[in-house]
Request: fold
Amino acid sequence: MKGLVIRILRQMGNDKRTLALMIAAPILILSLLYLLLGEGSYTPRISVCNDFPPALLAELRNQDAEVTILPDDMDKDIDIGIGDTISEENMNMDALLKDKTTDAVVTVDKDGMHIRMLESGSSKAASVTAAIKNAAAAVNPSSSMNLSFVYGKVDSTSFNSLGFVLLGVLSFFFVFIISGISFVRERETGTLERLMATPIRRMSVVGGYTVGFGILAAIQSVLMILYSRYVLGMQFEGPVWLAMLIMVLLAFTAVSLGAFVSIFANNEFQVMQFIPLVIVPQMFFSGLITIDTLPYGLGNISYLMPIYYGCSGLEKVMIKGFGFDGIWKELCMLMVFILVLFALNVLALKKYRKL
Amino acid sequence: MNIDISHVVKIFNKKEVLQDVSLTAREGEILCLLGPSGAGKTTLIRLVTGGLRPDSGEITIGGKNFPDRETMKHIGFMPQNDAVYTDLSGMDNLLFFGRLFGLSGKELRRKAEDAIRWVDLGNDKEKLVSRYSGGMKKRLSLAVTLLHNPSILLLDEPTVGIDPVLRKSVWDRFEALRLEGKTIIVSTHVMDEAARCQRAALLYEGRLIENDTTENLLLKTQSGSLEDLFFMAQKAGGTL
Reply:
């Protein structure tokens, strides 16, 4: 088994590109996401009608927003209630939005405030509503909403609140691909057959593979955690070493799953075909979507997914600040996955030698 | 150690790839498996390596039922494709396989150095195998097979794709190993290589059509060429 571990580490040392993929690529993606999801200080451009309440207008100007007042002729009988057809004036406003000269047009009438924006779900829309909400709260302090959570902070960026998903999914993905492809290549080139004609035990083959790639994966995981914590300043409420432990166990699961999946693949291309089948569904259950609210008991599928345990463990440590007592169940489940996959991989080698 | 193959049947996808094959490879002899592609040569060798299990019949090596991990230490198997790691140096390949046979430390180093010099790759031992030529890979594969000084050699088409000069030197080496008392099984579809073996087994569509000393087999043909035996088998509709 030791020989196999040495060999895998040597092979990786000789294959600088794959090594770079394992170490540099997750770091690069983490940095990119840090820039994309980090503190986005966008100043929304808001246009208001000229009969906009002056008190509110003043407060809106105090907010971090660029406010312009629309000329008089644009706000004749603007009525853009729900279900109404789009009037000519409405069209006029939309032209402004489509030109991207403004992010929102705000009008006020007896039904309240109407905010028209270009597209739903954009980050611009979020900063517009935030600015208006704050302005309204400043005019009437009793209507202000002060959010707070048991776990996590109100002003935490998506990079921080989704950090655990990124770490878990990224590391799993890269390790899975590399382990799956190496194992399938071993079968393709006939070296596995040669290996099985030596006195090595089947258990040692699988063990050597798991440990060899596991060491690399563990290095990757530790680097990813250190980089996110100390360079990108990702939020870690709980102990960093515990997050590392989860990542390392998750990486070992990924190695074993990669090797297991390669049994059903005849070449590298077929390993890639398992990505949409094995990796993508697991991503949905990694914490991207709130599992409690899923219909038809679909949330129960998550109990079969290693990434779910990895990510929920990471979430508990990084966001909720749990210690070892709080996550021992997740750690145990990851071990169970590793052991079951190990046994299946040893059995699968029977195809090459019954002994 | 003798290898005894008795009444072995192997079935793939309901097709009998080997039908009731019995033969013996003896110590100090080279047994040549001859036959066209698809005759079952590789299957027979893989049965002897333990990579496949016969559907009926049995294989014993040195009187012991096979596969058995103790006996496997004495087997040197050279697969048909090169089956070496291209992202390792030639030397690292040898060191890896040597460790699998329980070699370590100075002994492993010494044996690996010997083996790599034996196939004339001494100057290229630190190069990555991906930079080797086809012939060099073949020679490295042979070095891996012989590294642990096995007493049984199973060589699946060892001379395919190598030039005539190298082929001659490889066969000279097989002859030297034979004289040391090794049991050697070589598969080939090059008939003239059979002349360098003591025994030849002719496989045709999964059946053993001839199994005798090379001398006796040559007497059976009119032209003195073993190929004739296959043409005769073909003419007779597979029954000889």
About this structure: Residues 2-37+157-351 of chain A form one domain.
